[in-house]
Amino acid sequence: MKKLVIILILSLSFQLGYSNDRDVVLNQARESKENKNYDKAIKEYVSYIKMFKNEAVNLKDVYFEVANCYFLDNNNYMAFKVIKETISKYGVTKEDLETSPVLDKKLFEVAWADIYPEYTALRKQFVKRLNNVDIYVENNVVELKSK
Description:
The chain has helices at 2-34, 38-50, 60-72, 76-90, 94-99, 105-128, 133-139. The chain is flat. It has seven helices and no strands.
């Protein structure tokens, strides 16, 4: 019994430590962005995203933050590319883009003209990845197909 308790405590402390590492990286990225060090912020955001590589986590807001950094660094091509990836990977809708409290409003206005011609195709890429389209449509619950 004691061994089980010790294992549980060690497991929880490891998970909390890993969670804290993630928070540190995300906070560093946001601090770098605030300091207008966009290259560094982008690298830290990407590092944060990679921490979730094997987990089913919706990181669309983090992707929006990356897109904002590219946009603020005058790299519209990469900003648009990140938004497109967010649409195909997370199923982000036009409404999500328009109403996001994270995505820069000016970025959306500039990007939409570029994204619009590909928008339907990008959304179809997302839908193809769904395990059950009906559940997604009825309840907005995302179940991705296993690879």
